[in-house]
Amino acid sequence: MIKSFYINSKFNKFNFKTINFLSWIFFVGILCFLVYDNFNPETKKNDNINSFVENFSIEFFDVGKADSALVRFGHHAVLIDAAEKNSATSVKDKLNQRGIKKFDFVVLTHPHSDHYGQMPEILKKFIIKYLVTAKSGINSHEKSNFKKIIRKFKKMKIPIKFVKSGDIIKIDNVVFKILGPSKKYTNINNNSVVMQILYKNHSFLLTGDMEKAAEKDLLNLYSGESLKSNIIKIAHHGSSTSSTEAFLSKVNPKIAIISSGKYFNSAALYPSTKTLSTLEKLKIKTYITEKVGSIIASVIDDKIIIKTEKNDVSQNQDIEKAA
Length: 323
Ligand SMILES: [Zn+2]
Prior knowledge:
The protein is an alpha/beta fold and 323 residues long.
């Protein structure tokens, strides 16, 4: 009994010491966390710095013959392409006006300047968690200034996520499904990141500048209804290089957005009459930024509401509940 008591007592003493030691470790841990937290304001305090958007919306900025679209939901913001450097519209100003300070991620669909031109400006002013682009795109364009931008991201230690068909990015209840590129093409446009954004039962297809070859590969790769989208951002500013009837029929959108207009000081060469007649034939309601200014597609309750920048009430329209 005595022996046993002695052992127990030693054991209790040991336990007491261990608990003391663990408490001390815990205390130091908490202290380190508080110090770290104070010295790292960006990691914690900026998580909710964007103005809150109750519903999901995509805004296609009027940036001439170029692309730049802002996706917002909750405190989240995603930028898809950054327009041309000398565009009449400053994407930075548009973002400031909307209270954007931070992006969950930024997508550069492919290495053409009408998609990445204002990126250096944006890199200076906004916090970007990571960049999304396609590796095949970079490799196919050796001389591009795009490589300089990629280097800038690396220098700033902003991670780069190289995506391809089948990848998925999920933030809250929004899914960014990467449909393309499905392989490496020699044509840079075909290497565009093609992304289908899914929110509730709504879908938005963003196509970069992909051309017919990439559209055909997507048709082969995605069977059934998986390409079907309520809204499509028409590829390559409405050029006849893209938007085959077969592809648009499969996507079967209610609304088409064409990001097109002046290119530097020249008149717009896009969209092509061929693309416009295909859209008309398929009875797809089409909005062109050159005509209506920036276009916002918002999901409110179970409807998608389209609003345009220029005061043209007839352009504002509800589209029916997603099928
Ligand atoms: Zn383009």
